[in-house]
Amino acid sequence: MIRLYTWPTPNGHKVHIALEELGVPYEVVPVNIGAGDQFKPEFLAITPNHRIPAIVDTDGPGGEMPLFESGAILLYLAEKTGGLLPKSPRARALAIQWLMFQMAGIGPMFGQQGHFLFYAQEKHPYAIERYSNEVRRLLGVLDKRLAAAAYLAGDEYSVCDIATFPWLRNLEARGVDVGKDFPNIKRWFDLVGARPAVQRGLAVLADKTRKGPPTDEERENLFGKKQQHPR
């Protein structure tokens, strides 16, 4: 059994989708990051980085296995079950390459753009332009790849598609006309989004999705000094 500590964010949705795709039994433990649940001692015992998602595999190697970092969790689940990673060494390497591209590029840059667009109380034109330009650059890399292959690793849907998909769900709000500017991404996005397991994964904790701007308390829990000194 997998205990999944999560919240309905792009990184949380990655693991929701993977578990649904793999058919692995799991129990959802909500971690309300706006309310500060990520700083509770029981969560910090699993992930000292106080970020969701995290898992505890009650049937892990050598016993109960805690794990954090969404990319590491995706690889762990794929290797444990034998699914969502291509068998061919070449395609497997490509899947891991594009997973790392998401972890090192799309996640951080989209996250920073989202912060300055949707969360920051003061608008900073330089920051918005800087990260918006980088988002469009990264989308261009993805679009070029998806012009040459059905999925990011080639012919097979895999962990790198799962990792990338949730971050591309609100491109219109980011000022991107994906159908016009990135047609290959649009084709891939529609293909992935139609999968039943993807739809089930996105439904996990969907009723907890925050509507509107964060409150002062939420902003402090998400971005304040407590982030530097969790206890």
Element layout with pairings:
Elements: E1 2-6, H1 10-22, E2 26-30, H2 41-44, E3 54-60, E4 63-68, H3 70-81, H4 89-119, H5 125-148, H6 159-164, H7 178-181, H8 183-193, H9 196-203, H10 216-223
Parallel strand pairs: 1-2
Antiparallel strand pairs: 1-3, 3-4
Helix pairs in contact: 1-3, 1-9, 4-5, 5-8
Describe the structure.
The protein is an alpha+beta fold and 231 residues long. The protein has ten helices and four strands; from the N terminus they run βαβαββαααααααα. The protein has helices at 10-22, 41-44, 70-81, 89-119, 125-148, 159-164, 178-181, 183-193, 196-203, 216-223, and strands at 2-6, 26-30, 54-60, 63-68. It has a four-stranded mixed sheet with strand order 2-1-3-4, covered by helices on one side. Helix 4 (89-119) packs antiparallel against helix 5. The radius of gyration is 18 Å and the shape is globular.
Mean pLDDT figure: 96
Sheet/helix structural class = alpha+beta
- The shape, in one word, is globular
State Rg: 18 Å
Order of helices and strands: EHEHEEHHHHHHHH
Strand portion: 5-15%
Largest sheet: 4 strands, mixed
Number of helices: 10
Please list the strands of the largest sheet in the order they lie side by side: 2-1-3-4
Span from first to last CA? 28 Å
